[in-house]
Amino acid sequence: MSEFELKFEVPADCRDRLEAALQRGHWTATRLQADYFDTPDGRLARDGLSLRVRKEGRRWVQTLKAAGPSQVERLEHEVALQAPPRGQGPSVDPGLHADTPAGELLKRCLQPDGAPHGAALPPLQNRYRIDVSRQTRELRVPGGGLVELAFDEGCIRAGEREQPLCEIELELKRGPREAVLKIARRWAVQHGLWLNVISKGQRGERLARGAAHGPVVKAHPPGRGRPRNGDAEVRAVVGACLDQILPNASEVGQGRYNEDHVHQLRVGIRRLRTALRELGPLSPAVKPEWEAPLSRVFQALGEFRDRDTVLKAVQPQLASAGAPPIDMPEPGKVADPARVIQDTGFQTTLLELIEFSVAAPSDAGPAGTPKATREAAGRRIRKLHRQVVRDGKRFTKLDITSQHRVRKRLKRLRYLAEFVAPLFGEGAVEDYLAHLRPAQDALGLHNDDAVALAHYREAAARDPRAWFAIGWLSARSELTALHCRKALKVVAEAPRFWKK
Fold first, then answer.
1. Are 338 and 235 found together in one domain?
2. Is the CB of residue 330 less than 8 Å from the CB of residue 265?
3. Cβ(455)–Cβ(307) below 8 Å
4. CA of 480: how far to CAs of 162, 278, 449, 487, in Å?
5. In a shared domain, residues 132 and 92
6. Can you give the three-state secondary structure of the chain, one letter per residue?
7. Do 259 and 126 fall within a single domain?
8. pLDDT band at 314 (very low <50, low <70, confident <90, very high)
């Protein structure tokens, strides 16, 4: 069994309004107390599994959850239990989930390949407890669909550590997935909710370890269910981009993140924008209005990264070169990344993109067959490649804005090639990408210097000592531009996989 569920954080200033809206219909209140179990070395958490025993009012249930095909879908298996003897805490039995998809994953986790036959399972211990008051309401949708809305308030406890919880869950009980997403968009707009794909179990596991935040999530290729037509291809690529965006955005939105979360979130958004721009014409369901909110968030996070990452990297190099210390201007209007993520326009766009990625593809559109998809993708790659090669030959003569445009095109070229690699052959595409990587590194360094140079020019109006940095960065910029031109020549020599 699988569940399709969306989780949202409830801002403190929206809490009372949301509860009042929930209680306008028929609702029930329940106290939920859940104990989560794992091995001493955290095997289940590492494999994306959670195993809990929960008291739901007077009912006891053991539940196993495992990662599903997307960030909003999970495998789930639930078994009713007898109440433990009075005075005793709950115990857990992994065998209750045998012969289920989630249970097979649990078995492989506890008894990996190579383990001696008949070896005892590793012990499971109670790692943390989640105690919440839940208010539940069922929402019926046209066509017989049913969505459960659950508002949870409480806390997670792991030893002496404690973390508050205030979230709302929308779970599909019956009907099409679009039912959940349509309701989610309405509630998100009305009550300022924002998506958080980090489960209660994941938060509890981090609290138990004393971790400040979760891992940074990097890009992965779309699922391999090929061949696909154009519409199916675009939906698969968008889904893969969301798998990178949603967990990183959740960390940033909570205010528990580091600079790598912001960086990988921007990478995910850039990849998504590339997919919509270069492959979007292959699907009639792509909406042009998705671009504006994605662009706004990307730019706002970029301003944060410029100060938080680029300047930190350049300043030690300047100090080694003998630059005097200077007082950089205050950040000014650089937006708080958490606020940027929580923006309602961005959140509703994410929900529409999720709906697009999970909906069934159609045969409509200009690339209704895998062959037509390959040909259309090849034309887009060929155009980008020609533009990069053309501008690479005259790179040192371009102004900084045009040089930055070359870098953006090179990134789009790389992402597009990665997206469609299975259509042309993984090996041939990887050979091509190997020719792109030196140029990407060279242009990245050149761009970072340009960003730093702009900040030091701004600082020079207040502190003349900044002119040392301006001179040093300007001289290095001439050298890095030459390196970029040389690396772009390698791109021109790359084998054209789309011609095979």
1. yes
2. no
3. yes
4. 50, 29, 9, 10
5. yes
6. CEEEEEEEECCHHHHHHHHHHHCCCCEEEEEEEEEEEECCCCHHHHCCEEEEEEEECCEEEEEEEEEEEECCEEEEEEEEECCCCCCCCCCCCHHHHCCCHHHHHHHHHHCCCCCCCCCCCCCCEEEEEEEEEEEEEEEEECCCEEEEEEEEEEEEEECCEEEEEEEEEEEEEECCHHHHHHHHHHHHHHHCCEECCCCHHHHHHHHHHCCCCCCCCCCCCCCCCCCCCHHHHHHHHHHHHHHHHHHHHHHHHHCCCCHHHHHHHHHHHHHHHHHHHHHHHHCCCCCHHHHHHHHHHHHHHHHHHHHHHHHHHHHHHHHHCCCCCCCCCCCCCCCCHHHHHHCHHHHHHHHHHHHHHHCCCCCCCCCCCHHHHHHHHHHHHHHHHHHHHHHHHCHHHCCHHHHHHHHHHHHHHHHHHHHCHHHHCHHHHHHHHHHHHHHHHHHHHHHHHHHHHHHHHHHHCCCCCHHHHHHHHHHHHHHHHHHHHHHHHHHHCCCCHHHC
7. no
8. confident
Whether 164 is covered by a domain: the verdict is: yes
* pLDDT of amino acid 333: 63
Q: What is the pTM of this model?
A: 0.91
Which of 50, 351, 301 has the alpha carbon at shortest distance from 195?
351
Q: 295-324: string of b/e by CB count within 10 Å (b at 16+)?
A: ebbbebbebbbbbbbbbeebbeebeeeebe
Residues 246 and 152 in one domain: no
Q: How many domains does the chain have?
A: 2
Whether residue 49 lies inside any domain: the answer is yes
Residue 50 belongs to a domain? yes
How does pLDDT run across 435-475, given as a tens digit for each residue?
A: 999 999 999 999 999 988 988 998 898 889 999 999 999 99
Q: Clarify whether residues 204 and 247 are in a common domain.
A: no
For residue 82, give the CATH number of its domain.
2.40.320.10
The length of the chain in residues reads 500
Q: How confident is the model at residue 400 (pLDDT cuts 50, 70, 90)?
A: very high
- Domain span including residue 100: 2-110+120-209
- Domain for residue 350, yes or no? yes
Say how many C-beta atoms besides its own lie within 10 A of residue 67's C-beta: 15
